[in-house]
Amino acid sequence: MQPPPFEGGGCYEGCMMQTLWLLLIEQGWGAAILRGTLVTIVVGLLGMLIGLAFAIPFALARWTKIAALSQVVLGYTLLVRSIPGLLVIYLLFFGSVESVDAIATFFGFQEAAKNAYGFIMGVASIAIISCAYSVEVLRGALQAIPTGLLEASKSLSLPRGVVYMKIIAPLMFRYALPGLNNVWQSTIKDTSLVSVVGLEEVMRLSSIAAGTTRSPLFFYVIAGCVFLAITGVSQISFTYLESRLGRGFKVS
Amino acid sequence: MDLSLIEMALPLLWKGVHTTLIIGFFGMVIGLPLGIALALARLSSIRWVVAASSTYSAVFRGTPLLVQIFILYYGLGQLGAVRHNPILWWLIGNSLHCAILAVVLNTIAYTSEIFRGGFLAVPRGMIEAARASGMSPWVTLHRIHFPLALRQAFPAYANEIAILVKESSLASTITVLEITGYAKRLMSETFAIIEVFVLASIFYLAINLIALSLAGWLERRLATPDGRTRRK
C-alpha cells in the first residue's frame, strides 16, 4: 500500500478548529454524516424489527418442535450464525443485482430501483442476520418459562390465544430482553458492513469524506463516535426497558 | 453445480482458509492473555486503572470492527509519525498485520468482558479462605481465582473464538485475501454467486465445527470430577 503523502503537519489548535469548521460545516460533511447516521439507524431498526417479526414464529416453531419447520429453522440459524455477515451481504447483493436490474429494466424504473435497491437489500441482509440471532435468544427465553405456569394455564382451560398473549409473550420478552439487547448492539454494528456494497450510511459517507478530503483518521474517528453514541443511547434505553418489563420481579 | 468451477474455486478458497486461520490463531494466542489481563485491570482497586481499562473495553465493544480496521489502516497509516517508525509501520503498513492487530485489539475487549464475569462469579468465600490460609495474593490468583474463573468463562470464550473466525472476514475490506475476500473475488469473476457462497460457507462451518468441538473437549478436561462446569 502506498497512501498519499501526509499533509498539514504543522497544524495547531487555532488552525485545527478552522480545519474542523471547514471540513464539517463549509464543505458540508457534517450534514452528510448526520444523514448517514439517520440511514444507519433506520436500516438497523428496520432490520432488527423485521428480523424479530420472523424470529418470533421461528422460535415458537423450534420450541413447539413443529416437525419440518423446526429443522429448517435450525439449519438456517446454524448457517447464518457460523458464517460472517459480510458473506451474507455479498450473497444478497451480488445474487440479486442481475434479477433486480432485469425486472427494473422491464418495468422501466431503473433509476428509482438503483436508489432503493441498496437500501432494501441492506435492510434485508441485516434482517436475515439479526433474525438468526434473535431466534436463538427467543428460543432460550421460551425454554426458561417455568412449565408449571403453562400447566396451570392449561388446567384452567384458558383459550390458546390467551395463553400465548397473556402468559407466554410477556414472559418470553422479559427473559429475552438482555439477549435481544446484545442482538441489537451487534445488529447496529453490522449495518456498517453494508457500506461495503455502497449503501450510503454513516460508514460509507465517512469513507467518501475521508477519500475526498484526505483526512481518513478524522472521519473514521467521527464514524466511531457516531456508533459509540448509538450503542450508548441504546444501552440506556434497554436498561430502562428492562426495569419496566421486570417490574414486580425485582430480585433483591 | 459446475465441476470446473469447483476445480477453480476450491484451491483459492483453501488459500483463504490459511489466512483466516492465521488471523484467528493470532487473535486467540495474543488476545486471550491480554484479555485476561484487561479483565484483571478492570477488577483492580486502583481507580485510574479501572477507568482506563473500562473505557478501552467500552470503546472497542461499542464500535464496529470495520471502523476500527479503517481507523488503523487508513487513519493511522496516514500519520507521518507512524510511517517513519519502522515498528509501527510494520504493524500498520502491511494489510495482514494490520488486520491481525485490529482483530486482536477487538477481541481483547470482548475477552475481558467474558473473564470479568468469570472472575466475579468466583465465590468470595473461596478467596477469603485462600487468603486466610496464608496464600499471597499472587498465589491466590493463580491457584484459586484463575482456575475457577477459567472454568466459568470457558464456554463463553469458546463462543468468542467462533466470533473471532467470523470477524476475521473484515480483513477482506483492506485487501487481505482470506475466505470472504476470495469468495467476493470469485463471485464477481464467475457470477456463480450461490455456488461460491455455499463453498465458502462450508469452510466456515467446518472451521467453526472443529473449533467448537476442540473447545468442548477442553471444557470436559477442565471440568471438576463431579462434572460441574457452569454456575448453578
CATH structural fold name of the domain at 21-176 in chain B: MetI-like fold
Give the CATH H-level superfamily of chain A. MetI-like
Termini separation of chain B: 50 Å
Any guess at the CATH architecture of chain A? Answer: Orthogonal Bundle
So, the CATH homologous superfamily of the domain at 21-176 in chain B? MetI-like
- Return Rg of chain A in Å: 23 Å
Secondary structure: helix percent of chain A = over 70%
Oligomer: heterodimer
Order of helices and strands of chain A: HHHHHHHHH
Q: What is the H/E order of chain B?
A: HHHHHHHHHH
CATH class of the domain at 21-176 in chain B: Mainly Alpha
Q: How much β-strand is present in the residues of chain B?
A: under 5%
Query: Shape of chain B, please?
Result: flat
Give the helix proportion of chain B (percent range). Answer: over 70%
CATH arch. level architecture of the domain at 21-176 in chain B: Orthogonal Bundle
Separation of termini of chain A?
A: 57 Å
